[in-house]
Every structure is written in C-alpha cells, then in structure tokens.
Amino acid sequence: MSVFKSLITGAALSLAVATSSIAAGVELNASSTGLAMQGYDPVAYFTEGAPTKGDYRISSVYNDATYRFASEEHKAAFDADPEAYLPQYGGYCAFGAAMGFKFDGDPEYWKIVDGELFLNLSKDIQQRWEEDVPGLIARADDNWVNIETKSPEELQQ
C-alpha cells in the first residue's frame, strides 16, 4: 500500500508542477495562479518611481499572466501598451539572467534603465548588479535567448 501511495503522491506532485508551469509560462515569472510580479503594479515604477502593490479589483491579463494595478489610470496605460511596462526577462532576476539562471525577481529590488524595468532577487544582488549595469544587461540579453523557454529547474541541473 505504501508503494501505491508513493506513486500517487509523486504523480500528484508532477501534475502540480506541470500545472504551475502551464499557468505561469516558462518564460514568465508568475505564481502558480498566474499572478505576475507578486501583485505589484508594473506601471507604478514608471509613474510613481516606487514599487506599489496593485489592487486585486483592478487587473489585466496579458500573455496568460495577471497584472494588478493601483489605479484605473495605470491599468489603462498598461492595456494600451503592455510591453512598455513589463519587467525584462519575464520578471526574473536580472543578475540571475546574466549568470544564466532564472531566480525570482523581487519587486522591491528594481531599477529602470533606458526605459526598461529590471527586477533583482535581493538587496545584496541588486547592489552587485548595480556595479556593472550595462555589462550585466548585455550578458543577460545574450543569455535570455537560450534560457527564456527553460524552466528555472532545468537551468540548475
């Protein structure tokens, strides 16, 4: 009976992981429910100059991910031109992408460079990234071509 239970548990876990990847998309850093940027408003970085939590009642779906906004005006701006506000590398950590990996981007650690939003994993990673922003963006851009469609787990093998 325990072997059967182990098989069922393993199958359920595999299904949960597969469902999460399908919901979020491999190239996009979103929760298993499809919530992008941990619910932060992508437009606020550009208009408010600060990370701002979005309201669950004000949201849009773009590329199978749900984005939340702090105001109807932010939602309208996003809906008019989503690509202008999306974080680079699907919202994964910019420093991680430069190293060839996908780590969660934390919406609290960010920077706008040449009109593009970049997220990083943590405060110390953000500090390391800021030591060579142009160089690390160039490396991340080069790497992204090869890692975009791979899951974070595949890149760690």
Report on this model:
This protein has 157 residues and is of the alpha+beta class. It has two domains: 27-86, no CATH class; 87-157, no CATH class. The chain has seven helices and four strands. The protein has helices at 2-24, 44-47, 72-80, 94-98, 123-130, 133-147, 152-155; strands spanning 55-62, 65-69, 106-113, 116-120. Strands 1-2 form a two-stranded antiparallel sheet. A hairpin with a 2-residue loop joins strand 1 (55-62) and strand 2 (65-69). The protein is globular and about 40 Å long.
Question: How are the secondary structure elements laid out?
Answer:
Elements: H1 2-24, H2 44-47, E1 55-62, E2 65-69, H3 72-80, H4 94-98, E3 106-113, E4 116-120, H5 123-130, H6 133-147, H7 152-155
Antiparallel strand pairs: 1-2, 3-4
Summarize the structure.
This protein is α+β, with helices and mostly antiparallel strands and 157 residues long. It has helices at residues 2-24, 44-47, 72-80, 94-98, 123-130, 133-147, 152-155; strands at residues 55-62, 65-69, 106-113, 116-120. The protein folds into 2 domains: 27-86, no CATH class; 87-157, no CATH class.
The structural domain count equals: 2
Please provide the ordered H/E string of secondary-structure elements: HHEEHHEEHHH
N- and C-termini, Cα separation: 32 Å
Rg: 17 Å
